[in-house]
Amino acid sequence: MSLREALEAGRFAVTSEVGPPKGIDVSAMMASAELLRGRVDALNVTDNQAAVMRLSTIAACVHLKQAGFEPVLQVTGRDRNRLAIQSDLLGAASLGITTVLALTGDHVVVGDHREAKAVFDLESVQILKVIADLNAGHDMTGHDLIGTPEFYPGAVVTPGSVPLEPQIAKFEKKIAAGARYFQTQAVFDIEAFAHFMSGARESGAKVLAGVVVLRSARMAHFMNKNIPGIAVPDGIIATLERSENPQQTGIEIAARFIDECKEVCDGVHIMAVGAEHLVPQILDAAGLTEVIA
Amino acid sequence: MIVTKPRDWARIKANLESIDAKSVFLMGCGQCATVAHTGGEKELAVAKARLEADGYQVTGWAVGEVACHLGGTKLETRKHFGSVDAADAVVVLACGAGVQTVADAVKKPVFPGLESAFLGTVLRSGVYEERCQTCGDCVLDLTAGICPVTTCPKGLLNGPCGGMWNGMCEVQTDRECTHVRIKRRLAEQGRSATRVIPAKDNSVKLKPGSINTRERKGQ
Predict the structure, then answer these.
(1) For A172-219, what is each residue's pLDDT tens digit?
(2) I want to staple A92 with a disulfide (CB 3.0 to 4.6 A). Which of A27, A97, A170, B204 is the partner?
(3) Sign of the dihedral defined by the CA atoms of residues B210, B215, B217, B219, in that order
(4) CATH number of the domain at B2-117, please?
């Protein structure tokens, strides 16, 4: 069952992500993926994440696909103009990679090639529109395609954005442009997230809640201080501070949150950030024990 | 206006040394560079003193009405023909368009005396902010008179990126997110912006831009 089939069938879906290496040795990336085998519906492959140059997303997707995983191709507008984006999307589809996630991309100034020209010819909303065009059998200027792809387009949303209104307006634009599913930035407060979802439900788009596995209070403080749109609540930080085994506590917090999400949204997107080995344990604790074929 | 800033003096000197120039004619601009305090009469006087202190002879100087007007600049340089002709080089304290216009108007080697920064607004004397990319495909009608092409570091048209944080820009952390400003001003004016703004038409910005309003109709 593909991610699309799972979401459309209403089964609670689980995705995670892997980062391509800087270099051509994909063994560590594949080892991370192996830790998640049978436990996730699909694996996101980041696109020069944080504007740090790495092995191509499409190549990494092919490696994963050949190993039997469903890759989610992240497509950003930072490094490619509209010709390259469309051409890469067609190339991916020709290789059987059709689950895609459209993002604007981090600015080059935060990455490791600060002198690069930031492209941003298309932004996330416009990339979604391009995907809809390709799915309709023509490119963005209306020229017919030989062979029509069937992409399943997704996008991201930050429910904890402050202020929230511009983010919601963009969320609605993404739906209008064709996004069928969303991954959220990491969320921790189930009540606040449920409030966001009560509005998002009306759109009909499927939503995967972003889950970050906290391994210490220090990590929570770091994220609050450095990552936009993330707010680890004080209560969680206090629990981690009191814990004698913060990693185990972090696993329990994540598992409880995932369990609560079952009533709130359509699945979870787990950003393990180096803790892929903990994911099966978390899913077990969240009651998601079924092997995903 | 076109905002300019002083060019590194060592580069100006290196330019003069490259042609073994001993004498210089200075030109400024009565418009933008005068307002920006980079190429008006006062700044030319400072440049003249500095050149003389460095051993150059300054044969003369002029601040025309507007450096980037070819006809006006030709007249201005003709008025000063003797001192221009006596100079080995002309240094222009104006934007890049001004420098090129002077270079078209005189037969001497012409060097830039300023760096062109951007097309922007004078917030108050000495404080300038970039406002326009002259993209030729204006979206200000949809964005409450705030240009996201220029004032969002990513040039996004449809709303904030995931980097917006407590209303601030992730790239230029001391600036409020342009899309937060746009949204607020639209709301204050009772306007909404739900329509997806399509990708920009870059074909209208083919370089070099050229406009001729004198072309006869049908041509």
Answers:
(1) 999 999 999 999 999 999 999 999 999 998 888 999 999 999 999 999
(2) A97
(3) negative
(4) 3.40.50.11860
Among A115, A139, A157, the domain-final residue is A157
Is residue B218 pLDDT above 60, yes or no?
A: no
Q: Measured between CB atoms, which of A140, A173, A185 is closest to B162?
A: A185
Closest CA to B170 of A45, A111, A34: A111
* Cα B140 from chain centre: 21
Q: Hey, what are A196's tokens?
A: 């966001």
Burial of B51 (0-12, 13-18, 19+ CB in 10 A): buried
User: ipTM for the complex?
Assistant: 0.91
Nearest CA distance, A78 vs chain B (angstrom) = 8
- The CA distance from B10 to the nearest CA of chain A, in Å, is 24
The A residues from 15 to 74 touching B (CB cutoff 8 Å) are: none
Got the DSSP string for A14-38?
Answer: EEEEE---SSS--HHHHHHHHTTTT
B200 interaction partners in chain A (CB closer than 8 Å): 121
* Domain range enclosing A127: 10-157
Contacting residues of B for A161, CB less than 8 Å apart: 160, 164
**Where do the structural domains in chain B lie, given as residue ranges?**
2-117, 135-199
Query: Do A21 and A118 fall within a single domain?
Result: yes
